[in-house]
Amino acid sequence: MRTQVAIIGGGPSGLLLSQLLMRAGIDTVVLERQSRDYVLARIRAGVLEQGCVDLLRKAGVGARMDREGHSHDGTNLSTAHGMFRVNFKERCGQSVMVYGQTEVTQDLYQAQDALGARIVHQVANVELHDVTGDHPFVTYDKDGQTHRIDCDYIAGCDGFHGVSRPTIPDTVRQDFERVYPFGWLGVLSRTAPAAEELVYANHPRGFALASMRNAHLSRYYIQVPLSDRVEQWSDQAFWDELRRRLPAEVADPMETGPAIEKSIAPLRSFVSEPMQWGRLFLVGDAAHIVPPTGAKGLNLAASDVHYLHEALRAAVLDGDRAALGQYGPRALTRVWAAMRFSWWMTTLMHRFPDQTEFDQKIQEAELHQLEWMVSAQETMARNYVGLPY
Ligand code: APR
Ligand code: PHB
Question: Among 52, 66, 267, 327, which residue is least crowded by beta carbons within 10 Å?
Fold first, then answer.
């Protein structure tokens, strides 16, 4: 088989890149190790930056998002002294779109089907070859046979545990990482959201977040020790703890119900440089991981896709490879800005096991500034809605 761009990974990064490239007349093949149903069953974040919204519309997958998504002009933060709102619209003139990643992935699959995309599911043993030469190729196993795809470029969209990043030698790569000493226990429930906008809570017992997918589907998180196992959390125990951490005006009227999804995720900040090596380009979680506090995971994948698809169009359609050479540095500038913001939100809103009383006072002072200082709110708003591409 031959293609112009071989895409490893059929998550949001891989599907969105394939969609944009195919619409530009560039041939792609997507290799995904899981089944389509497995990919669609993943429960992930649900806040889209304006840049991501615009890119989805440009890719022709914005119609359902525009119908069913909800625009949020601000968010709420609660502390021991009460709850306050940061008005994005007022502070930076933009909003965010609340629309689940699961729905984005569903829309991308539907659009890719309409274009007759070549997406090969349940592949195994994907290997990248000659990525520093002019004729790279990919091999993979399926149905007991080994297959080969000759290509011009390879996009590594295969997430944190994929094969693309390790293809870049340790002697070339530099990884940057911070692992946080807690996780997030997340619950999805068929209940009405506890508030009209998101509520991020900094409570002495730990962080909590009240989010949503739509008027009948809510998403909640509480900070838990890394030693916790999801089996030890009954639904009732979760609701009781969430109620303790959310402000009374949100917690008291909150509708509870059975968890239709419950899981614990660790939090880390991770960046691998460079994001390209020869004709291999890393995209999304394959290159970087953010703690979910700033809702940047999917949004960073989108900006990577934006930069790479533009550079590949220039190289493949116009023979101009200058932008390809700048993909990594250009993407990393925005990655590090979002990495800083996600670290800042995480440090601001969580209780760290080893934090001192001085640390606590500094956290309270930072929250106080955010509550009362317009410039502090402007900085948060600009980062939360997404810095320009
Ligand atoms: N071969 C083929 N596919 C692979 C391989 C492999 N060796 N390893 C991983 N994959 C697939 C995974 O099954 C997954 O579907 O690559 C895809 C990677 O998707 P994501 O992990 O979702 O990463 P990305 O597409 O960059 O999207 C980032 O998704 O995970 C969230 O928090 C993340 O919101 C962010 C967004
Ligand atoms: C979510 O709705 O899953 C969500 C929203 C905002 C975050 C993290 C997760 O910061």
Answer: 66
Give the atom of ligand 2 at the shortest distance from the alpha carbon of 295.
Answer: 10
Topology match between the domains 5-77+95-177+268-345 and 184-267+350-385:
no
Give the per-residue pLDDT at 125: 98
Dmax over Cα atoms in the chain, in whole Å? 63
CA of 316 to the centre of ligand 1 (A): 25
Sheet holding 199-203, edge to edge: 82-87, 74-79, 199-203, 206-214, 217-224, 174-189, 259-273, 288-289
Ligand 1 atom nearest to 162, measured from its CA: 8
pLDDT at position 45: 87
Break the chain into its structural domains and give their ranges. 5-77+95-177+268-345, 184-267+350-385
CATH class of 184-267+350-385: alpha beta
Q: Which residues are catalytic, by number?
A: 72, 200, 292, 296, 384
Over residues 98-119, the pLDDT tens digits come to 999 999 999 999 999 999 999 9
Cis omega (within 30 of 0) for bond into 292: no
Structure tokens at 307: 């930069």
Which numbered ligand comes closest to the C-alpha of 298? 1
Ligand index nearest the alpha carbon of residue 186 = 2
Q: How confident is the model at residue 383 (pLDDT cuts 50, 70, 90)?
A: very high
pLDDT, mean over the chain: 97
CA-to-CA separations, 316 to 123, 153, 319, in angstroms, rounded: 27, 10, 6
Q: What is the distance in A from the centroid of ligand 2 to the CA of 100?
A: 9
Q: Is 46 in the pocket of ligand 2 (CB under 6 A)?
A: yes
- Residue 122, token pair as written in the block: 């349940």
Report how far ligand 2's centroid is from the alpha carbon of 68 (Å): 17
Chain-centroid distance of CA 39 in Å reads: 15
Q: Which of 13, 42, 160, 293 to mutate to test the pocket of ligand 1 (most atoms within 8 A of CB)?
A: 13
Between CA 382 and CA 384 the distance in angstroms is: 6
Return the CATH architecture of domain 5-77+95-177+268-345: 3-Layer(bba) Sandwich (3.50)
